[in-house]
């Protein structure tokens, strides 16, 4: 046979099907856009976000051009109305919906406790610790360390449980560094 196909197996039983990426039982948000734009670790995939954003911005710009061209169209007012609806709804609405989705997805509001993941928390604490170590060699070390100490204590005030213990450990370490720097530098 010239065009013979290799035998393919079509899984008919649900147990035989392999789940889509990010659609397993441990996934919190089954939203397609979330699975497309975010990795399993919660980080955004720029390689997918930038083209999507470019397409939606391009559609919105094209929608603006269609609205500018509307007065040039001659003919029935219904055609102009349909043209404007096409330009606004089908070309501008995807960008508006994408941006609204990003805004609505961020559930952190001012004056509320932040909801950081364990990974984010460890990154913040590591950054504070690294910055404190780096600040020791700077001429303005006391001011930098004082700022980092305030940040670490603020972070410790926002947390509870084991996370609070980690934040307190970093805050106390930075305070110890502040004490060492003050001992080394003469006052006056």
Kindly list the characteristics that best describe this protein.
188 residues, mainly alpha
Proportion of β residues? under 5%
**Backbone structural class:** mainly alpha
Helix content: 55-70%
- What does the overall shape look like? elongated
Question: Would you kindly provide a written description of the structure presented here, covering whatever features stand out?
Answer:
- The chain has about 190 residues and is mostly helical.
- Helices cover about 65% and strands about 0% of the residues.
- The protein contains 6 helices and no strands.
- The chain has helices at about 30-35, 45-70, 75-105, 120-135, 140-160, 160-185.
- Helix 5 packs antiparallel against helix 6.
- The longest helix has 29 residues, at about 75-105.
Topology (SSEs and partners):
Blueprint: H1 32-37, H2 46-69, H3 77-105, H4 118-135, H5 141-158, H6 162-184
Short description:
By secondary structure, this protein is mainly α.
